[in-house]
DNA sequence: AATGAATGAGCGTTCATTCAT
DNA sequence: GATGAATGAACGCTCATTCAT
């Protein structure tokens, strides 16, 4: 399995297109096979079952997605700069591939909990990247130091994810990357040393 | 239809239980009927079709959910107090009904886009509540005044939603309501008057 | 059962209308009840089951139909005059009640063989009327005398029935009664003393 | 679809048998599949849906039926000879295939109007054959020349159809083909040059 | 007599997966 | 390796009939 890389890739790409075009529930294996230019049975030479296709789509696409972000922040020093880059790359990559955005934000979420568990495994390295930024931010005293890391990471991820999902559902009518500074401001402010309540003095 | 409120409620409750126990895709109408203690056909005296059951579950449960939050903040004045109450009630209500939490955070999201559209309609009043708080916060100068309201609301909703989803997926091992102050702090900080970047050092 | 004649009639009339409007397969008992202005359950105080309604419709309507024809020919003497009257009344009555024509020619034929057997029982007196005309015609030497009565009756009935059915299916665009002389000519010719083959000239 | 002729034929034959044995309404797809020796799903590789099976049965069987009649009369000259052949072949073919006779005369008529419309389309060539004979008969002065062709055709078809239906309903107790001369005599007499009314005496 | 809420059996169709070629 | 015909389990919904009121 997964030997001949070419056909494997073809099927993955076909799956993304088919799911983006037809929606999760109307994406039959036979449609993916047709789009990939192979026979239905051939799919099963490269993937264990339909579930495996979906997870593999996520692995392939998210693997690149995460690596792209990780490598972009590698040479940066300040946690809040890293965070800004992370947000920028997160938005930029999804804005650049509409099909992928549709698939990851809307369609793949219709899969059953078992598949979603596995998808979460794939996301784990991304969460680690976030956790590291938070830790660094606390060390650098860029962020408050009493932060509950998993909680903060959930807040950041939830914020980014919801914004992208809304953008996809609004049929990508506006420019997602334009939102980066606002989002970054919101998050860094939220994480920085606490002011007195109510602020404005 | 929807005449005899009693049986209608019975079926709604049964649906929540069945979906929480079996997962969205394994929730057959016949299972719901059995759990509700009625015949399969009886379901269709109260609901147009299966889809209608699911949407009604959301309407009933989220209707209460939102109303509970809305009425709790009605008598409060400060936007950040309102926000704290909103977060508290949001978490508290889902923490109090584990089945409902599973259904809304995990299972109902597997529905097709048509159902999800309708679910989003039900959520709309909640988003309005949030928008109002943000507007008030700006007027009261509790929040910065140049905020992009829809964007901020997405960030708040995304934050809360992701935290609850994580809590549900972690099988509710910890106390969700305990997280309220941290989350509230994160958000109000994020929204309050901007400090110099990076703050402390 | 069949006690209070009023409601019984109401239901029969409603059934004809419902079947004519909706077609046989879309004529649910509940629709007939609604049109008749009674509760579903009331139907079963007057009829054993749905099948009984359909047969009763046929009994009521065809009873009149046949009686009308029988009484019209009673005072006539010549078999071929009787035949002409029979054809005329047959066409005239169905032309006068479009709903009935639709129901008897098209819709009731979609019933299963069991019901159709019973419908045929209702038709029997009509066939006897035809048989009597044929017998008389032979005695009067208006028709050939070696006729196979059941066969001839089938030919006559088949001829009339097919013509009416075609007229109904053509949505009654032309005048059915206008066809009487031609049909009568065809049949009496067919039944009269045999000429040499190829006939007249 | 309809590729591998063998299985297609198997299913058609199975459908005829199942319908003849069980009646139209008790002929489930699964029964047809079982009788044909294929899986339920296989049916749908060869037919669009159940309706398509029924129409195809009619197309296949009636196609042959009509072609058989058409080719038999092709080399004949006199219209009344052609008519006799038509009646003979009509009766002979249905007498030779009892299942087919049951299906076409009784069961398929229970189908809804949509299917019956399509069945009528299939019959159209047969009606054209009849129309041609009538036209020729008039040209050859074998028949009267003022005939209303569609009406005459309806009378002929109605006659034949009713005779076959009666024979089927009488459970085929007598020999259908024996009736040919009588029926032919009735029709040609009916169509030949008019004698004075009442004829013989 | 009349109601109408409740019942529950019954079936066409889809589609992931297999396997003979 | 590649094919694609064949498989068969699974389920939402309808509607004639009943029966407590």
From TrEMBL, chains A, B, C, D:
Report the residue ranges that make up the HTH tetR-type domain in this protein.
5-65
Coiled-coil regions, chain positions: none
Keywords of this entry: DNA-binding, Repressor
Q: Which Pfam families does the UniProt record give?
A: TetR_C_4, TetR_N
Question: Which InterPro entries does UniProt cross-reference here?
Answer: Homeodomain-like_sf (IPR009057), HTH-type_Tx_Regulator (IPR050624), HTH_TetR (IPR001647), Tet_transcr_reg_TetR-rel_C_sf (IPR036271), Tscrpt_reg_YsiA_C (IPR013570)
* DNA-binding region location: 28-47
Q: Does the keyword Membrane apply?
A: no
Protein name in UniProt:
Fatty acid metabolism transcriptional regulator FadR
User: Which gene is the coding source of this polypeptide chain?
Assistant: fadR
